[in-house]
Design goal:
This protein has 232 residues and is mainly alpha-helical. It has one domain.
């Protein structure tokens, strides 16, 4: 048990430190003459604010950087488990969730930037994609539908944050739980299903809390849509 705990500690630390690398801050500094993205637009250190305040190329690079740092965190988690607890098959999946949560926390509260980071949407998307691709496809579909309808990134993000725990529980309970009522299912334990669901609740809840100002503006009809081809 001690080896498993140590693997999770290494996973959490590595995930947090990688998550703290905020590409919106780095790329804005590079593209906008050493300026801080947190002084522009909404003040958020994230892709949408970079798109509006700096440009399309920096926004695309921010997306890629914030996605790939979560990929790196999850790959490291698998290496730590393989090194310290290779016999625990289900533990590989647990470590991926721990790495993802730590990376999202690092993005939101980066140790390198005074604990003032972004809202964790892109990094959360990477975590979802790498922990359960089926849930990711549903979340992505929900995002696409809401964004195509309203063109408001924050609204689409809030809807997806609320749906993520629901999708996670349904898929794991029906398709992966060893006691699933369906004839074809996986071998995961109920403890794993509950842990993964709680991880999804944590991520979804964190994203919702970080969007509380956006939720207020949405309720007042003040949130601005993204308009492509026009400079804000």
């Amino acid at each position: 048990m001690g080896q498993e705990v140590l693997a999770l500690v290494f996973t959490a630390v590595a995930g947090y430190l990688l998550g703290s690398i905020n590409w919106s801050i780095i790329l804005t500094w590079f593209f906008k003459d050493k300026e801080d993205i947190r002084k522009y637009g909404s003040g958020n250190a994230g892709m949408t604010n970079v798109l509006r305040s700096v440009g399309k190329l920096p926004a695309v690079l921010t997306f890629a950087g914030d996605f790939l740092k979560c990929v790196a965190a999850l790959l490291l988690s698998q290496a730590f488990v393989a090194w310290l607890a290779p016999a625990s098959v289900e533990f590989y999946d647990v470590a991926r969730y721990v790495a993802g949560m730590a990376c999202v926390l690092g993005h939101i509260f980066p140790v390198y930037y005074g604990f003032r980071g972004g809202k964790g949407v892109v990094t959360s998307a990477a975590m979802i994609a790498l922990t359960d691709w089926r849930v990711f496809l549903l979340v992505l579909l929900a995002f696409a539908i809401v964004f195509a309808w309203k063109r408001i990134v924050s609204l689409a993000s809030v809807v997806c944050a609320a749906l993520y725990p629901v999708f996670t529980f349904l898929f794991l309970f029906l398709a992966e739980f060893s006691g699933s009522p369906l004839p074809s299912h996986g071998e995961h334990s109920l403890a794993y299903v509950l842990f993964a669901t709680l991880a999804a609740v944590f991520i979804g809840g964190t994203v919702l809390v970080k969007h509380r100002a956006n939720i207020g503006r949405l309720r007042r009809g003040e949130e601005k849509p993204v308009i492509f081809g026009k400079k804000k």
